[in-house]
Amino acid sequence: MKVNLSNNQAFNLNNVDPEDLDDVLVKIERSFNISLEDTSFKDVKTFGKLCDIVVEKVKQTNNESCTTQQAFYKIRNAINTTISAPKELVKPQTKLEDIFPRDNRIVVITEIEKEMGFQLNLLQPKQGIITAFAFILIASLAGFFFQPMMAALGLVVAGSGFALAGRFGKELKVKTLGDLAEKVAKEHHLKCKREAATVNRAEIAQKVKELFTKDLYLEPAVLTRDAKFN
């Protein structure tokens, strides 16, 4: 259950922060349009058991078509409708920066989200900006012991900075349309289906696994069916 990363740190499922785990469970609920509130997690000991519960709660009719492929087609149609890009130029390997020029990126992506009916969560601020405001936040928290007024001002600056950076960030989280289709298939599994009343049940556990690996920084090899929670 242990995986060694390049920095020699080991990440285990049973050591995941409970708040981070809750965040992933919320994403699973949203992606599959289910509720886990009636599930007693004291009885959910393994990752495989969690996947079984999610599969059981998804009531849509089984359809074995590839959800990532359907997500790509939905994204392509939204792009064609919004910016009239030729279909032959909109391929899985197409770079997003070629479709979404930086100068009007926020506006175009907002229009595409309206067409698709959900947020892509595709943009983020530059890492340097996040690092700067994180430093202000940490310094402000430490400063309460010495200059409470200045520390409070620093917290306001950091909070406002994070909010503005998130709103106006233009950096792309993924590089290609194929990457975006995989992201959408994980985060909006049912909404990206051509037929909303169907789902590929064989994909569900894999999509749950992908959300865990992405958000909790776990290697896929860690998430076996027998991998244990706390």
Any key phrases for this structure?
9 helices; mainly alpha; disordered N terminus; 230 residues; two-stranded antiparallel ribbon; flat
The shape, in one word, is: flat
Q: How many strands?
A: 6
In round numbers, the mean pLDDT is: 86
Detail the poorly predicted runs: 1-9
Straight-line distance between termini: 13 Å
What is the makeup of the main sheet? 2 strands, antiparallel
> Could you state the order of secondary-structure elements as H and E?
EEHHEHHHEHHEHEH
Structural class computed from helices and strand pairing: mainly alpha
- In which range does the helix fraction lie? 40-55%
> Rg to the nearest angstrom?
20 Å
Put simply, the count of helices is 9
Strand order in the largest sheet: 1-2
Strand content: 5-15%
